[in-house]
């Protein structure tokens, strides 16, 4: 009996030994697999890897490499540049809120950095692009009909670039983008003014048109605002002010359709009943129609 028990215990010991070896091998494999390939990589190599990923348009991969660099090497010129390029990668990937957060963190940490003008410029790009990006792509919504809080922040960012860093390489483009944003804000006011006009609220329509002219002079919609002022004064029975508006408009845009009694025209009512038609600006539609006739 003793000999038989010893013989039977041998296979058991062999099986137990095999199980130990299997578990050990599995553990080693998992440890190797779980180890990040970038861990321990020299800072120069890690930065070069992230930069190459950016050049190839792999924004997510670049962001990951730059974040790994910052985690492993929290100080130094490579770290500062990696933080900047990580924010750019986030912006290019459409992660605008993340980009703005990264930029704000950098500005707080390095307020006098040599590339600080670029950071404000990039924040302007991200803020100007962050509002309902998906909806604009799918439904082609007019930019002036959106919430304008982030475009206004973008305008403030570009204004910082032009005022604090007028000689930077980003100042000229920032000025141009400010002009475009002012037109968006003016269009927003024009759409509101036309909304009131369509409903016969002529005092409110005149007030919006006046605000547009005072707040956004020389915008692309200034002549429309003058025309709407004239139309409002006609309906309010103020012939003198209506005639003044007509004279001003004739000097600045003699071909404006209001002078021929053919303005404003509103979108066809059936369009508003179609949920798939997209939201269009009455101001833009009328202005584009005039431009096409020229």
From TrEMBL:
Keyword Metal-binding part of the UniProt annotation: no
Keyword entries, A-Z: Cell outer membrane, Lipoprotein, Membrane, Palmitate, Signal
InterPro entries membership: BamD, BamD-like, TPR-like_helical_dom_sf
Membrane topology: Lipid-anchor
CDD domains linked to this entry: BamD
Quaternary structure and interacting proteins, as annotated: Part of the Bam complex.
Protein name per the record: Outer membrane protein assembly factor BamD
Gene: bamD
């Amino acid at each position: 009996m003793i000999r038989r028990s010893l013989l039977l215990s041998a296979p058991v010991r062999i099986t137990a030994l095999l199980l130990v070896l299997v578990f050990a091998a599995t553990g080693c494999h998992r440890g190797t697999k779980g180890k990040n390939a970038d861990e321990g990589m020299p800072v120069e190599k890690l930065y070069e890897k992230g930069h190459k990923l950016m050049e190839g348009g792999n924004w997510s991969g670049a962001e990951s490499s730059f974040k790994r660099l910052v985690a492993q090497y929290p100080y130094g010129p490579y770290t500062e540049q990696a933080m900047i390029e990580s924010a750019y990668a986030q912006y290019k990937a459409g992660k605008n809120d993340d980009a703005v957060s990264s930029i704000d963190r950098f500005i707080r940490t390095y307020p006098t950095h040599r590339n600080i003008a670029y950071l404000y410029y990039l924040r302007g790009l991200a803020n100007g692009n962050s509002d309902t990006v998906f909806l604009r792509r799918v439904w082609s919504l007019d930019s002036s009909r959106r919430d304008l809080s982030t475009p206004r922040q973008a305008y403030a960012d570009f204004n910082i670039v032009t005022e604090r860093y007028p000689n930077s390489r980003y100042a000229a483009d920032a000025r141009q983008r400010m002009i475009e944003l002012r037109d968006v804000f003016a269009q927003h006011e024009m759409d509101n003014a036309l909304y009131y006009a369509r409903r016969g609220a002529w005092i409110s329509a005149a007030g919006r048109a006046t605000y547009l002219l005072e707040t956004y002079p020389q915008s692309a919609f200034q002549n429309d605002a003058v025309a709407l002022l004239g139309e409002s004064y006609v309906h309010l029975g103020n012939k003198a002010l209506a005639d003044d508006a007509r004279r001003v408009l004739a000097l600045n845009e003699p071909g404006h359709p209001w002078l021929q009694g053919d303005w404003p025209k509103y979108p066809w009512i059936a369009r508003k009943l179609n949920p798939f038609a997209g939201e269009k600006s009455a101001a833009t539609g009328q202005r584009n129609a005039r431009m096409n006739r020229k």
